[in-house]
Amino acid sequence: MKSEFKAKLIQHLLSRKDSEKGFTLIELLVVVIIVGILAAIALPTFLAQVNKARHAEARNFVSTALKAQQTVYLETNQFASNFTALQAEVGLSTNLTYYTPGINATNPTSGIGFLACITAAGKRDVLKDYTGVAWAAIIGGATIPEIYTAVFEEEKAGAGGASVPCANPAPATNSAVASAPTNYVNLGK
């Protein structure tokens, strides 16, 4: 009987050990530390990609608004001074989540000095500001003005200050090249 009792006791202890499987505190601590290290590495990369997507939204807005300004100019011989005309022309939405849109247009009564400026100012300091300009110029002795556009991106996020400056394409000199505002990079047309 004693050997039978020992066999049952050993069998009971072995079956009980199998049913009590789990993780030790050390194992859980190691897993938490590894996950923390991976998160610390991946989070800045993820946030940078999110900001790039937000920058693309602003860039696309400014570019689309400039194309709408070109269309309005071709139809009315002047640039739109508010977003209402641009919304009617191309369905331009000014409901930007992370940017504040702005528009400014000068339409002189005589001569060639037309200038339209579209801005997208970031609502947070980590976002780059964007400005775009459309201007009409007579190049190379032509009689009909050409319409040029340029989009500019802030070099470093948060460096632009409270307001986004407009570029100076020097429309009075009939230039086809726009000069970038301070701390901005020309992204082209």
End-to-end separation in angstroms reads 96 Å
| Number of helices in the DSSP assignment | 3
Strand order of the largest sheet: 1-2-3-4-5
Mean pLDDT figure:
80
Shape by Cα distribution: rod-shaped
Beta-strand residue percentage:
15-25%
Quantity of strands, as a count = 5
Unreliable residue stretches: none
Largest sheet: 5 strands, antiparallel
Helix content: 40-55%
Q: Order of SSEs, N→C?
A: HHHEEEEE
* Estimated radius of gyration: 31 Å
Write the layout of secondary structure elements.
Blueprint: H1 2-19, H2 25-76, H3 83-90, E1 99-106, E2 115-122, E3 130-137, E4 146-154, E5 184-188
Antiparallel strand pairs: 1-2, 2-3, 3-4, 4-5
Helix pairs in contact: 2-3
Which structural traits does this protein have?
189 residues, alpha+beta, 5-stranded antiparallel beta sheet, 5 strands, 41% helix, 20% strand
Report on this model:
The chain is an alpha+beta fold and 189 residues long. The chain has helices spanning 2-19, 25-76, 83-90; strands spanning 99-106, 115-122, 130-137, 146-154, 184-188. The protein has a five-stranded antiparallel beta sheet, with helices on one face. Strand 3 (130-137) and strand 4 (146-154) form a beta hairpin.
Q: Could you give a short description of this structure?
A:
With 189 residues, the chain is of the alpha+beta class. The chain has three helices and five strands; from the N terminus they run αααβββββ. The protein has a five-stranded antiparallel beta sheet, covered by helices on one side.
